[in-house]
Amino acid sequence: MSLRSILTIATICLAGTLQAQDPKPKAQALVKEAVAFAKKNGKEALLKEINQGQGRFHVKSGEDLYVFVYDMAGVCQAIGFQSQMVGVNRWGVKDPDGKFFLQEMINLTKTKGSGWVDYKYPNPKSGKIEAKTSYVESLDGWMVGCGVYK
Known about the structure:
Layout: H1 3-21, H2 24-41, H3 43-51, E1 58-61, E2 63-71, E3 76-79, H4 101-111, E4 114-122, E5 129-139, E6 142-149
Antiparallel strand pairs: 1-2, 2-3, 2-6, 4-5, 5-6
């Protein structure tokens, strides 16, 4: 086998490994699955599934992924691990840089239907403020999302 072939194989393997470690596709797929679940079973069934904390919309596999749902006024409807947040209006919450990230998420779903929002948020694993990005999608007057730390 030539050196060129070995380097090509190594490059392909490394690219595959890096792509496999990127949690963004998993977060996006989880949101799309949640939206499809709600369309099939109803929005209330989605809230029940998410708010139980360890259901199908809370994935623990290296990266801790969970789905969250807010109405267009910024009131939390469901969140996979912080049940105390349900019913809380978080419209005015800012990240450490002063960014109204929840407002940006909601406005993105209102104007474009879906997309990614970058912000900073406390990471429960490290205890530190870290860069995070969330994929959000519109669902009949709600914003459904899932975030990952960068």
